[in-house]
Specification:
alpha/beta, binds fe (iii) ion, 39% helix, binds 3,4-dihydroxybenzoic acid, disordered C terminus
């Protein structure tokens, strides 16, 4: 059976991609940002997922405002980098996993989450920047990727609660796939930022840090945050954080936070990053890259029981 071993959340600021492409990562401004991802790259190299599901948003690159799907699952064999105005980024073409993606589409749609199936799509900074932050800049990405594009650009985006429940449906889909695959799920975007209008440059570290705390400890609390609160507290683009809840929904209720990083700013944005491991998965694997020991057998059994209950219950 395939299983989700961990969730990773990261901001996806396009200027981070430009700093990599223009070889500015050693400049002090950027070094501060990239230094927060050194441990994460080690963690990822150690985790060696077979597949990554990357939840991100398209910024009118693949989808113009003519058609804006709420949840669009990339089922293609490959996803080239989009031209966002300066030519496509010099990053590898993302290889997809059409079989698992088709399985997820079937499972999730029959589970009453009506995804849009996308068989041809280019991917923008929302996906490629977190890939660089976690995988570095290899010639080929080390694993296939299933992109899940979420509308957070045109009102109305999905609610935080809907995103969380979709995460649970994705987990059920992954766990009903017969092949043994170790899957990491990414949530990208955020944290607080507003890139235009009178409040451009808005940062709310208090809100962001509480969001990170609750992402680990009490994600259900976050599912009750309405759109207006995200936008009032975290800026117009702070709404991107609903995507982190898809990632969180796909994990156990009780997870192991193995790494966290927060810095202000990169471009207009508060950069947040967190790595959460499913305890069962962590117990099976080696020592975590962040230096924590695998959880003890007692916790492992409790996590397995909780997980079984969640999967059985399905909905809240
Ligand atoms: C910025 C951040 C984003 O998430 C984005 O999609 C575009 C721009 C910024 O901070 O500049
Ligand atoms: Fe964005």
């Amino acid at each position: 059976m395939a299983r989700i071993i961990a969730g990773v959340a990261s901001s996806h600021v396009p200027a981070i991609g430009a700093a990599i492409d223009n070889k500015q990562t050693e400049e002090p401004y950027w070094k501060r940002v990239f230094s927060g991802f050194e441990k994460s790259k080690e963690w990822m190299a150690n985790a060696k997922p077979d597949v990554a599901i990357v939840v991100y948003n398209d910024h009118a690159s693949a989808f113009s405002v003519e058609i804006v799907p709420t949840f669009a699952l990339g089922c293609a064999a490959e996803f080239p980098p989009a031209d966002e105005g300066w030519g496509p980024r010099p990053v590898p073409v993302v290889q997809g996993h059409p079989e698992l993606a088709a399985h997820i589409a079937q499972s999730v749609i029959l589970d009453e989450f009506d995804l849009t199936i996308v068989n041809k799509m280019e991917v923008d900074h929302g996906l490629t920047v977190p890939m660089n932050l976690l995988f570095g800049s290899p010639k080929q990405w080390p694993c296939p990727v299933i992109p899940l594009a979420v509308n957070v650009v045109l009102y109305p985006p999905p609610t935080a609660h809907r995103c969380y429940m979709l995460g649970k449906a994705i987990r059920r889909a992954v766990e009903s796939y017969p092949q043994d695959l170790r899957v990491v799920i990414f949530g990208t975007g955020g944290m607080s930022h507003q890139i235009s209008g009178p409040r451009a440059g808005l940062i709310n570290s208090k809100f962001d840090k509480a969001f990170l705390d609750n992402l680990t400890k009490d994600p259900k609390k976050l599912t009750r945050i309405p759109h207006l609160e995200f936008m009032r507290e975290a800026g117009a683009e702070g709404i991107e954080m609903v995507m982190w809840l898809i990632m969180r929904g796909a994990l156990d209720d009780d997870i192991e936070e193995v790494y966290r990083f927060y810095t202000v700013p990169a471009s207009n944005t508060a950069v947040g990053h967190i790595i959460l491991e499913n305890k069962r998965a962590a117990a099976k694997g080696k020592k975590s890259a962040a230096g924590k020991k695998p959880v003890a057998g007692k916790h492992k059994r409790a996590a397995a029981r909780a997980n079984h209950r969640n999967v059985r219950r399905g909905k809240r």
